[in-house]
Amino acid sequence: MRRGDRASANDAHVKRRTPRRPASALIEKWTEIDGAPVFYRESPHPPASPDAPDAPVMVHLHGFGLSGRYLLPTAELLRDDFHTFVPDLPGFGRSARVGSGLDIPDLAEAAVRFLDDRGIERATLVGNSMGCPVIVEFAHRFPDRIDRAVLVSPAGGVYNQPLGRAISQLARDGGREPIRMVGVATPDYLRFGVPSTLRMFRALTQFPALDRLLALTIPTLAVLGTRDPLMPHALRIQEIAAQDDNHILLVVLDGAAHAINFSHPRELAHVIRRFMADQPITQPHGARTHARVYEVHRGIHHPPAAE
User: Fold this and answer.
1) Distance between CA atoms of 4 and 7, rounded to whole angstroms?
2) How far from chain centre, in Å, is Cα 229?
3) Where residue 198 sits, what CATH number does that domain have?
4) What residues contact 77, with CB distance under 8 A and at least 6 apart?
5) Do the domain assignments include residue 15?
6) What angle, 0 to 180 degrees and rounded to 10, lies between the N-to-C axes of helices 180-192 and 194-206?
7) Who's near 164: CB < 8 A, 6+ residues apart?
8) Does the residue 11 lie in any domain?
9) Is the dihedral of CA 207, 213, 214, 218 positive or negative?
10) What is the pLDDT of residue 266?
11) Within the chain, what is the greatest distance between any pair of CA atoms?
């Protein structure tokens, strides 16, 4: 495609997919990565102080077939603590696809290119579902670009095989999420399409997520919900996490399903703040919190929890 034709096509894409109204208090913006339009959200007033003129950067990465929109409830609560970004990865949500890139290494490459585009040297990455394999691959390939990892309801691997089992798990999860999640997720799934879904599922199940997870050398928070049908029981995850000396802090949200970033934003934001400050995980307080939070594993490289 000639440069002028590509510019016209990009302009048309942006005009067609720009939301009519903002979905949160974050600012909605467009950029171009490898010549393709990429949609993202950003803190309107990134926090800073004389001692820390550049606030720590936190980038939220979405799950399978979705956009970053369902991550906004949690990201919005953290916008004054961290310089927060919520992109739609290329090929998802409102962003255009860059080449054929619909496997985990491609998406990790897209994430680092987003950081490059925004002039970000290092960041903490927060992922949900498919976003978690993207993060551990990012950490494997670009270890100097990531400070910490937050893995919420990691997806992929043998527990989600074969496709029929994964579809059944997703169907059960749909009945456990807030009803308003339907209005957020349905447009994203329809836009993503069946061919992309099949290809992405194959990439997820073939990705060595466990090996990458156990090889992490950065502080890592993993958050699981007790009602998530896409995840093994938390005790099994605890056994895996304890296989070796590690940097994993494993936290459980009682009563949460898969889309914790959407369904339990206050509890999750509380846990993330405590993790980022190297503080023990405590029960959040307030009338709008409704799930018990507790640690089930603390790797030896984390500061010990207070008595």
Assistant:
1) 5
2) 18
3) 3.40.50.1820
4) 265, 266, 269
5) no
6) 90
7) none
8) no
9) positive
10) 95
11) 64
The total domain count for the chain is 1
pLDDT tens for each residue of 254-272:
999 999 999 999 999 999 9
Is 2 domain-assigned? no
Contacts of 281 (CB under 8 A, 6+ apart): 249, 251, 271, 274, 275, 293, 294, 295, 305
**Residues in CB range of 149: below 8 A, 6 or more apart:** 124, 125, 127, 135, 136, 139, 216, 218, 219, 220, 221
Low-confidence ranges of the chain (pLDDT < 50): 50, 307
Q: Which domain holds residue 130?
A: 37-298
Q: Which two tokens stand for residue 288?
A: 């709008």
Coil, strand or helix: which one is 264? coil
Task: Name the residue type at position 288.
Answer: R
Residues 6 or more apart from 3 whose CB is under 8 A from it? none
Q: What is the pLDDT of residue 307?
A: 44
Distance, in Å, from the CA atom of 43 to the CA atom of 61, rounded to the nearest integer, reads 15
Can you tell me the distance from the alpha carbon of 241 to that of 183, in angstroms, rounded to the nearest whole number? 35
pLDDT of residue 24: 87
Q: What is the pTM of this model?
A: 0.90
Q: Who contacts 254 (Cβ-Cβ below 8 Å, separation ≥6)?
A: 226, 291, 292, 293, 294
